[in-house]
Model the fold of this input.
Amino acid sequence: MRLILLGPPGAGKGTQAQAICRHFGIPQISTGDMLRAAVKAGTPLGLEAKKVMDAGGLVSDEIILGLVRERLQAPDCANGYLFDGFPRTLAQAEALKRDGVPLDVVLVFEVPDEEIVERMSGRLVHPASGRTYHVKYNPPKQPGVDDVTGEPLIQRDDDKEETVRARLKVYHEQTKPLIDYYTAWEASGDPAAPKVRRVNGVGPVDEVTERVIAALLS
Ligand code: AP5
Ligand code: ZN
Done:
């Protein structure tokens, strides 16, 4: 299975990615997690990316494509992969197509903007693994602690309300047009075009997972 998760910030891409990757035995390629790892490591790329991320903007296509192209060389990508948060500009989508990276499905998460802000304000993350929780909707077994490692959970720097609103604006302007892009490609009848599947992302996490798996197998 080779797929893209597309949807606004806080739609549940990272949360559902965990279940999908387990189900199909494929790696999660989250450009956001890769950038946060670079920020934490203090690399020059990380220092540059941090400013952009904290403002809710998008890191340059050049940097992102460099990260993804390198990641795709790894042997664990041979049997499939899940892109989480990539591509998110037309330029990134076109580059992926030009590179001939095979794709089966583009999964579009639909969640209204009003729900997003509440989700972000309660999000807790285990930075090393990217595992994501919510204080109310998806709480860890023990408060503030990762279920698997027992390590502390943190809040993301870009989850402040004003940054979330900036990220939503960027999503509507630059990433949402990709839904039309992939829909048009599918409609063209090109056998290389991925199927576009829309999923309602509102409701309990497990129910959304059932919808996702059903959509992927349809
Ligand atoms: P990235 O890390 O990709 O952030 P994002 O797309 O804004 O998405 P999020 O991670 O915020 O949300 P999510 O959909 O994964 O939701 P989650 O599962 O965590 O990118 C961060 C930044 O990096 C960008 O702003 C940009 O600067 C840069 N960047 C990354 N990729 C880039 C690219 N390709 N090009 C350029 N720049 C790039 O869920 C959110 C919360 O809701 C959690 O608390 C969760 O527990 C909860 N939740 C999940 N599902 C449900 C549910 N069904 N009901 C209730 N709560 C739920
Ligand atoms: Zn995420």
Observations:
- The radius of gyration is 17 Å.
